[in-house]
From TrEMBL, chain A:
One family name in Pfam for this protein: ATP_bind_3
Protein name: Cytoplasmic tRNA 2-thiolation protein 1
The protein's Enzyme Commission number: 2.7.7.-
Pathway as given in its UniProt record: tRNA modification; 5-methoxycarbonylmethyl-2-thiouridine-tRNA biosynthesis
Location of the Cytoplasmic tRNA 2-thiolation protein 1 C-terminal domain: 321-351
Binding site for ATP: A95, A96, S97, D101, V127, G205, D210
Cellular component terms (Gene Ontology): cytosolic tRNA wobble base thiouridylase complex; mitochondrion
Organism whose genome encodes this protein: Gambusia affinis (Western mosquitofish)
GO biological process, one term: protein urmylation
Keyword tRNA-binding attributed: yes
InterPro entries in the cross-refs: CTU1-like_ATP-bd (IPR056369), CTU1_C (IPR032442), Ncs6/Tuc1/Ctu1 (IPR000541), Rossmann-like_a/b/a_fold (IPR014729), TilS/TtcA_N (IPR011063), tRNA_thiolation_TtcA_Ctu1 (IPR035107), UPF0021_CS (IPR020554)
Record GO terms (molecular function): ATP binding; nucleotidyltransferase activity; tRNA binding
C-alpha cells in the first residue's frame, strides 16, 4: 500500500484522499455561516435527497454514493457508445494487472455489459513480467478477480515468450532505461495473449491521468508521431496479427477510479512498480499532479489540447510496415522488441536505446559488429 | 618553514581547467570567453557574430518583413526584448553590413496599475525606459495599460491584410531598391515620443477591479496577457505599423507551449508560439528572438552591456504552485538543469505543429463569428462525438440535479434538462446547465474558445470585462440571432466578410 509520505502517520494515500474529500463537502457551508456551527449536512447535488458523502474531483460537485456510482458508470457507457468501441457479439479481452484501473475496468465492463446488453463476451488477459515482489503479488489479485467476476483468465509471461524476466533485464540494463523494455515487451505480450484467446479487441485501463501524462511526455521527448496518436481512444484495426486496443476509461480521473473502487469495496493491489522511480515519466507525472492541484480541470484541458493538435505538412512521419524477423507490425526493418531482444541476448543492452538504425541491417544479415560499435552498446550507466 | 625562497626545478602539475585553455570552436584561434552548451565555446567576437547572424537569418529566411515597412517593437524592459531592441538598433544603423531596411518604432506598456504599484514607482521605471528609448532615436510610445479600457471593439475583429502576399517579397525588394532606398533615414527627424498621459485614478481602479475579479492567479495572468496583446495590436493599427515584433526567447516559448497545452489551447498552439501570428489580419505578430535561449541572451547582454530594466510581474516572488504559468516555468527550468536538451526539444516539437483547421491564410477569410471574442483565435469548441469537451459536458450534466428542485427565477431556460435527453451536444444547449450559476455568462460562453471559457469561468463576474469586449459580444449575439431569423432565405452558407 502507498503510505503517506509524512512517514509519521500510518494512513495510506488513498484513505487520505477520501477522508479529505468527505471533509471538504461541508467547508463551504461553514464559510457561508460565518462562525462555526453544527455542520449542516450537504445534500447530493444530483438527487437532492440523500446526504453527500464525497466531492467529485472532476467537477467539484458533492454527491451521494449511489449517484456517484451511477454518474461514473454512465460516463463510461457514454464514452463507449459515442466512440463506438464495441460491436455486439465481439469477444473482448480486458488487460488485467490487478491494479485499481484494471479491476475497476473489469467490474464496470461486466456491469455495463449486463445493464445495457452490449452482447460482449469478456475475458481477462494478464501479463507476468517476472518482477518479484510486485507482479507475483498482483497476479494473485487477478486470480481472485477472475473468481469474483467469473471471467476466463489467461496469463502470458515474458519468460515463456522471450526467455527473459524483468529482473534479469534490469540486471543487465540498469535502472534507467528498463521501462522501455517492459513497455515494448508487454505490448507484444498482450497481443500474443489476445491471439491465443482469439479475442477481437483488447481494452486497457488507461485513465485520463495516463493520457494527459503521455501527451506531456511526448512533447518533452519531441515525439511528434506519438503525439498525434496518443489521444486516440482506440488504435487502428487493420492488419492481421494486430488486435485493436481501446481505452474505455479514457475520460475517468484516476482519483475518481480510486473513489469508485474504495466505495464499492473492490479488491485490488496498489503498489508502484519497484523499478519505476527513475523513469522519465515520473517528471511528467509530478508536473501533472501539481497542475491538478492548481486547477482540477487541467487533466481534461490537456486531453482537449492533445486532441486538437495538428501536425504541419511536410513533417516526416514513420510508415507502418512489418518486422522482417517476427512479422509483427513495425515502422523499421526490425521491430523494437526484436532489436531489444537481440541486444539482450548478445550482451549489448543499449542496442535498443537510442538511434542505431544503420545497425539493424547488420543484425539482420548476421554480420558481426565492429569492436567500436560493441563498446558503445555495452556501456551501461547505473 | 617558509618556502618562498625555494625554487622548484620541475613544473608543478596543474589541473587542466577546460575553460581557461579551450580555444573558440569557430575561429580556433582565440581563447574562449563563453560556453553556451557543453562543447560550444566561443570567443567574444565569434559569439557576437553568431548572435547577430542568427537575428538576421531569422528575419531573412522567413521573408515576412518587407523593406520600407513600419515595424513596432514591443519592449517590456526585460533582457530579451532589450536585446532585440539593440539588435534592431545595430542593424538599422548606417554603418551596418547589409543594413536592415525597415522602419522601427518602440512601444512599452506600463502595467503598474494592474499590479498595484505606486505612482512614483511607475514614473521611475518609465523615465528610465524613456532615456533608453531616446538614445535609439526611434519613435517610441509609452502607454499605461489603463488605456485598454477605452479600446474600440474593432480590435477584436481581424481586418483584411493590406495587399502584400508572401510571393511578392522579391517584387517588393526590387521595387524598394529601384526607388533608391529608404527615403526617411539619414534625415534628423523629429523623434516622435508619446510620454504617458496622466493616468486617472478611476481608470486604475477599474483595471484593478477587472484583474481582481479573476479569482485564480492563472486566470489573472491569462487576462493580463490578453489585454496587453489587444493594446499592442491597437497601437500598431492606429499608428500605421503593419508588423509587431515580440521579444520571446526560446526558453520563454517552450514554457509558453507547455502552459498553452495545460490551459487547453492545443488548437491555437501554432499561433501562440510560432514565428508569425496572423490572427489579427492586418497586423502580423513576429517573434524574431525565438531561437535564442535565455542563457545566450543573458551572456550577450552582460558582455556587450545591453541595458535592461527589471520590472515585476504578477507572479514575481510567488510560490511555485501559485499559478499554472509559474509552475510550468519552474518545471521547465528545473528539467533543463538535468536534461540540457529539454528546451530545444520542446521548441522543435512546437515548430512542427500548425493551427488546427488549415493554414493561416484561410483564417483571414473565416467569419468573425467563428473567432473567440477574447483571444481572436478560431473556436475549437465543436463538441464532437467522443471528445474531451463532450465528456466534460456530460460529466457536468450527470452531476447536476435531474429533477428541478425549485424554480430558478433568473434562469431564462427554466427547468434544467432531464437526464434522458443529453444536452451535451452543442454549446448553446449546454449553457442552460450553467444558467443557475452565471446568468450573464450565457451570452459570453458560446463566443469563447475552450481556454478562454476556463479563464472567464474563474472570474467572479463577467460585467467587469472591458466595455469593448462586452459590446463586441453583444454585437455578435445580435448578428447570429438575426442570421437565425433569416436563415431560410439565405442562399449561401457563407456570410460576407466585414
Amino acid at each position: 500500500m502507498l503510505l503517506c509520505p509524512c512517514v509519521r502517520c500510518s494512513h495510506t494515500v488513498e484513505e487520505q484522499w477520501i477522508r479529505r474529500m468527505s471533509e471538504h463537502q461541508s467547508a463551504p457551508e461553514q464559510l457561508a455561516a460565518g462562525k462555526s456551527q453544527a455542520r449542516m449536512p450537504v445534500l447530493c447535488s444530483s438527487c437532492s435527497e440523500k446526504r453527500a458523502v464525497l466531492k467529485r474531483p472532476k467537477t467539484g460537485h458533492s454527491l451521494c454514493k449511489a449517484c456517484f456510482f451511477w454518474a461514473f458508470e454512465e460516463e463510461v457507457h457514454r464514452t463507449i457508445v459515442a466512440a463506438k468501441l464495441f460491436r455486439p457479439g465481439e469477444t473482448v479481452g480486458i488487460a488485467a494487472s490487478g491494479g485499481k484501473d484494471s479491476t475497476v475496468l473489469a467490474h464496470v465492463m461486466k456491469l455495463l455489459n449486463e445493464r445495457h446488453s452490449y452482447g460482449l463476451e469478456l475475458m481477462l488477459i494478464s501479463v507476468d513480467e517476472g518482477i518479484t515482489g510486485y507482479r507475483d503479488d498482483s497476479l494473485e489479485t487477478v486470480k481472485r478477480n477472475q473468481q469474483q467476476y467469473e471471467l476466463p483468465l489467461k496469463i502470458v509471461s515474458y519468460e515463456e515468450l522471450y526467455g527473459w524476466t524483468m529482473d534479469a533485464i534490469v540486471k543487465q540494463v540498469g535502472l534507467k532505461n528498463n521501462c522501455t523494455f517492459c513497455g515494448v515487451f508487454r505490448r507484444q505480450a498482450l497481443d500474443r495473449g489476445a491471439v491465443m484467446l482469439k479475442v477481437d479487441k483488447i481494452c486497457t485501463g488507461h485513465n485520463a491521468d495516463d493520457v494527459a501524462e503521455t501527451v506531456l511526455m511526448n512533447i518533452l521527448r519531441g515525439d511528434i508521431a506519438r503525439l498525434r496518436r496518443c489521444t486516440a481512444i482506440s488504435t487502428a484495426s487493420e492488419g492481421d496479427g494486430v488486435v485493436p486496443r481501446c481505452k474505455p476509461l479514457k475520460y475517468a480521473y484516476e482519483k475518481e477510479i480510486v473513489l469508485y473502487a474504495y466505495f464499492k469495496k473492490l479488491d485490488y493491489f496498489s503498489t508502484e512498480c519497484i523499478y519505476s522511480p527513475n523513469a522519465y515519466r515520473g517528471y511528467a507525472r509530478t508536473f501533472l499532479k501539481d497542475l491538478e492541484s492548481i486547477r482540477p480541470s487541467s487533466i481534461m484541458d490537456i486531453i482537449h489540447s492533445g486532441e486538437n493538435l495538428s501536425v504541419r505538412e511536410g513533417v516526416k512521419m514513420p510508415v507502418q510496415g512489418t518486422c522482417s524477423r517476427c512479422g509483427y507490425i513495425s515502422s523499421q526493418a526490425l521491430c523494437k522488441s526484436c532489436v531489444l531482444l537481440e541486444g539482450l541476448n548478445r550482451g549489448l543492452p543499449k542496442l535498443g536505446i537510442g538511434k542505431h538504425h544503420r545497425l539493424h541491417e547488420k543484425i539482420l544479415s548476421q554480420q558481426p559488429l565492429t569492436e567500436r560499435e560493441k563498446r558503445k552498446l555495452k556501456s551501461v550507466d547505473f | 618553514m617558509c618556502q618562498v625562497e625555494e625554487e622548484y626545478h620541475e613544473q608543478l602539475e596543474r589541473v587542466d581547467t577546460p575553460s581557461a585553455s579551450k580555444k573558440c570552436v569557430k575561429c580556433k584561434e582565440e581563447l574562449a570567453a563563453v560556453v553556451i552548451r557543453a562543447g560550444d565555446a566561443y570567443c567574444r567576437n565569434c559569439f557576437r557574430e553568431s548572435f547577430i547572424h542568427k537575428f538576421r537569418a531569422m528575419l531573412g529566411k522567413t521573408r515576412v518583413i518587407f523593406p520600407g515597412e513600419k515595424v513596432l517593437l514591443a519592449v517590456s524592459g526585460g533582457p530579451s526584448s532589450c536585446s532585440m531592441l539593440s539588435q534592431v538598433q545595430e542593424g538599422v544603423s548606417q554603418n551596418a553590413h547589409k543594413k536592415l531596411r525597415f522602419l522601427p518604432g518602440i512601444v512599452y506598456i506600463d502595467e503598474g496599475g494592474a499590479l498595484g504599484q505606486h505612482k512614483e514607482m511607475r514614473q521611475k521605471t518609465t523615465s528610465e525606459l524613456c532615456d533608453m528609448f531616446r538614445s535609439t532615436s526611434f519613435p517610441f510610445y509609452i502607454l499605461p495599460l489603463e488605456q485598454v479600457l477605452d479600446l474600440p471593439g474593432s480590435v477584436l475583429t481581424p481586418s483584411p491584410p493590406s495587399d502584400q502576399p508572401g510571393s511578392a517579397y522579391k517584387a517588393a525588394v526590387d521595387l524598394f531598391l529601384q526607388s533608391g532606398g529608404s527615403g526617411s533615414d539619414g534625415k534628423a527627424e523629429e523623434q516622435e515620443c508619446v510620454s504617458p498621459p496622466a493616468v486617472q485614478e478611476s481608470h486604475t481602479r477599474l483595471l484593478q477591479q477587472l484583474i481582481g475579479s479573476a479569482q485564480t492567479l492563472t486566470a489573472k495572468q491569462d487576462l493580463l496577457n490578453t489585454l496587453r496583446q489587444h493594446l499592442l495590436v491597437h497601437t500598431a493599427r492606429t499608428r500605421g505599423y503593419s508588423k509587431l515584433m515580440l521579444g520571446d526567447s526560446c526558453t520563454r516559448l517552450a514554457v509558453k507551449l507547455l502552459t498553452s497545452i495545460s490551459l487547453g489551447r492545443g488548437a491555437q498552439l501554432a499561433q501562440d508560439t510560432g514565428f508569425s501570428d496572423c490572427r489579427y489580419g492586418d497586423v502580423i505578430v513576429v517573434r524574431p528572438m525565438r531561437e535564442y535561449s535565455a542563457k545566450e541572451i543573458a551572456y550577450y547582454n552582460h558582455m556587450f552591456k545591453v541595458p535592461s530594466v527589471v520590472i515585476p510581474n504578477l507572479d514575481t516572488k510567488t510560490a511555485d504552485k501559485a499559478s499554472i504559468q509559474r509552475l510550468t516555468q519552474s518545471f521547465v527550468t528545473k528539467l533543463q538543469a538535468d536534461f540540457p536538451s529539454t528546451v530545444s526539444t520542446i521548441y522543435r516539437t512546437g515548430e512542427k505543429l500548425q493551427t488546427a483547421g488549415g493554414s493561416s491564410s484561410s483564417s483571414s477569410a473565416a467569419e468573425d463569428a467563428q473567432r473567440c471574442v477574447l483571444c481572436v483565435c478560431g473556436l475549437d469548441t465543436a463538441a464532437e462525438e467522443a471528445s474531451a469537451l463532450q465528456a466534460t459536458l456530460i460529466s457536468e450534466q450527470l452531476s447536476r440535479s435531474s429533477v428541478p428542485v425549485k424554480p430558478e427565477p433568473h434562469s431564462p431556460v427554466g427547468q434544467c434538462c432531464s437526464s434522458e435527453r443529453p444536452c451535451g451536444g452543442s454549446e448553446g444547449a449546454s449553457d442552460c446547465c450553467r444558467s443557475s450559476r452565471h446568468p450573464e455568462a450565457i451570452e459570453l460562453r458560446s463566443l469563447l474558445c475552450y481556454s478562454c471559457r476556463r479563464t472567464v469561468g474563474d472570474m467572479s463576474s463577467v460585467a467587469h470585462l472591458p466595455q469593448y469586449v462586452l459590446s463586441e459580444a453583444q454585437r455578435r449575439q445580435n448578428r447570429s440571432a438575426m442570421k437565425e431569423q433569416i436563415s431560410e432565405f439565405l442562399l449561401d452558407d457563407a456570410d460576407e466578410n466585414h
